[in-house]
Amino acid sequence: MTEIIKEWFDRLYADTGLNFSVFRDAFDAQRFLEGVLTTLEMSAICLALSLAIGVLGAAVQGVRFRPLAWLVDAYIQFFRNTPSVIQLYFFFFGLGPLFTSTNEFGQAVPLVSSYTWAVICFSIYAGAFNVEIFRSGIEAISPATVDAAQALGYTRLGTYVHVVLPLALRISFPALSNNMVNLVKLTSVAYAIAVPDILYASSQIWSDSLNVAEIMNVVLFSYVLIVSVFVWGAGLLERRLRVPGMGV
Amino acid sequence: MTRESPSPRRPAPRPSAGWARGAFLAMALLALLALWHAGASAARPAPAGAPSIAAILWDWTPAILKGFAANVGISLASALFATVLGTFVGIGQLSLHRPVRWLCWLFTHLFRNAPWLVLLFYCMLLLPFQVRVGAWVVPIPDWVKAVAGISIAAAANMSEIVRGAIQSIPTGQWESAASLAFSRTQALWMIVLPQCVKRMLPPWMNLYALIMVSTPLCAIVGVSEIMTVAADILAANARHDLLMPVYLYLLVLFFLYCYPIAVLTRRLERKFAIAG
After folding, report:
1. Rounded to an integer, what distance in angstroms lies between the CA atom of residue B159 and that of residue B156?
2. To the nearest whole angstrom, how far is the Cα of A222 from the nearest Cα of chain B?
3. 8 Å CB contact of A191 and B29
4. What CATH code would you report for A30-241?
5. Nearest CB to B247; choose among A89, A213, A220
6. Taking CB atoms and an 8 Å limit, are B227 and A199 in contact across chains?
7. What is the per-residue pLDDT across A68-110, written as a single tens digit (0 to 9) for each?
8. % of chain B residues with pLDDT over 70
């Protein structure tokens, strides 16, 4: 199979000069594939972390001690209304030097890699949106449902975990999946701090092989493919999770 | 028989949204910055003769604001192109011509699913640096290519906003327009779209804020703007303790610009939801 693909692109190169090196050259293919895996892995980790931040943040906003809610609110507004690239730079260049150790030669060595900083930054960024999404999902649940749960003897925490959260998740799923799609797209910004994702790996390939146009199209197509599959899957799940008579 | 509905249902007051809170937040951040700076300089006094961080930031403020003006300019130009292009593509998605409808759908979904940075790279690297129009050679500066990249991404979003707004207008409007002998085009431009404007305003403002916070991406592809100025400051001073304050300064600047837009958007959303 790979032989057929390679042959086809070799012939394309011979005929037209279009050099799709990621399909022809084993080294470029390897670099590109690793980039794809990095993007997918980063997306998956950020997704899980940002969901956790969303659930936690929404829970904290429901706590009676108001200053905590204000703190979460400040976090949401600040991260929503500032550019994620500068946030990333702030984390990587601003906070990065605070987390260093020295190696045996006395040189400073970063403890947190650029990949980890990108994951932390994007999770916090997407998490800010998730808190608001979860909160509006929680607000959409009728108070009668919560009262009913408490009448049945659920504690406040029990109501939240067993009644409010599952319903809120299902109600807010459309907005949530939308935000998660944006998160997958956002991971490309990690290029700025040299995380070897699709975009960065590709930029190295086109610098070596001097085939910008071809690789740029491959990159665009790869991202559109990944995001489209993600959107399609989210759509399937959305139909399964729809609460009859609630949400839009 | 129509009856005045009882007092319109107001959405529960939301804890966020408020100029006062935003101002408070910004002040708190600045205070935090000052406090951190004081703490840092107390812990590790700057070498004799070296200017303090606050002094450096103050000296560079005119340059930073100039860089920020470039960001605002790019965002306004992109918003203009995206709005015009997105409106036509959005209308095209509802065209009766199958090829037009299909093409507009493809444009929307292709560019909505591509990361903005990738589209920026695409335009930056693949658009020519000059075009020949007859006898003239017209150069295309980098910032124009950046505007093109952002515009395409934003136009795809705009297209969905327009399509959604048109589809949210009750079909009765189309039918009564048709019964008054309006053609489809006339009904669209004279009856349906004017009603859409109000509905599209909040999401459009959201989109503008999104465009604004995306402009620093232009520095990655080599357009001079605020991030370039930040790099200049850091290069000119070569001080590690300057990294965090500089980026925090930029973040606060963007926040002061974008937060009022967010508050206004939410006010409008709420107002229209009640009037609905």
Report:
1. 5
2. 9
3. no
4. 1.10.3720.10
5. A89
6. no
7. 888 899 999 999 999 999 999 999 988 888 887 777 787 777 8
8. 82
User: Does residue B30 lie in a domain region?
Assistant: no
Contact flag B118-A86 (C-beta cutoff 8 Å): no
Q: What is the predicted pLDDT for the residue at A246?
A: 62
Domain assignment of residue B122, given as a range: 55-275
For residue A121, which of A70, A185, A186 has the smallest C-alpha distance?
A: A186
Provide, as residue numbers in chain A, all residues whose Cβ is less than 8 Å from the Cβ of B125.
Answer: 212-213, 216
Q: pLDDT by residue (tens digit) across B213-223?
A: 999 999 998 89
**Residue, of B23 and A143, whose pLDDT is higher:** A143
Q: Is residue B9 part of a domain?
A: no
Residue B249, C-beta contacts closer than 8 angstroms, at least 6 positions apart: B33, B57, B64
Which tens digit of pLDDT belongs to each residue from A140-166? 888 899 999 999 999 988 998 899 888
* Beta-carbon separation of A86 and B240 below 8 A: no
Q: What pLDDT does B156 receive? A: 95
DSSP state of B4: P
Confidence of residue B35 (pLDDT cuts 50, 70, 90): low
Residue of B nearest to A89 (CA): B247
ipTM over 0.95: no
CB B106 within 8 A of CB B206: no
- The confidence score (pLDDT) of residue A52 equals 95
Question: Is 70 exceeded by the pLDDT of residue B57?
Answer: yes
Picking from A78, A192, A220, the nearest residue to B255 by CB comes out as A78
Q: What are B77's two structure tokens?
A: 């130009």
Start-to-end CA span in chain B (Å): 20
CA distance A184 to chain B (A): 8
Whether residue B8 has pLDDT greater than 80 = no
Question: Which positions in chain A touch B243 (Cβ < 8 Å)?
Answer: 93-94, 97
For residue B123, being part of any structural domain is answered with yes
> Token pair of A35, please?
């980039």
Question: What is the pLDDT of chain A when averaged over all its residues?
Answer: 89
Q: Mean pLDDT score of chain B, rounded to an integer?
A: 85
Written as one string, the DSSP assignment of B69-117 is HHHHHHHHHHHHHHHHHHHHHHHHTT-SSHHHHHHHHHHHHHHHSS-HH
Q: Given A74, A139, A224, which is nearest B113 (Cβ)?
A: A224
Domain ranges of chain A: 30-241
Q: What is the CATH number of the domain that holds B161?
A: 1.10.3720.10
* Positive/negative CA dihedral, A168, A170, A171, A173: positive
Comparing CB atoms, the residue among B118, B125, B209 nearest residue A223 is B118
Inter-chain CB pairs, A–B, below 8 Å? 118
Count up the domains in chain B and report the number: 1
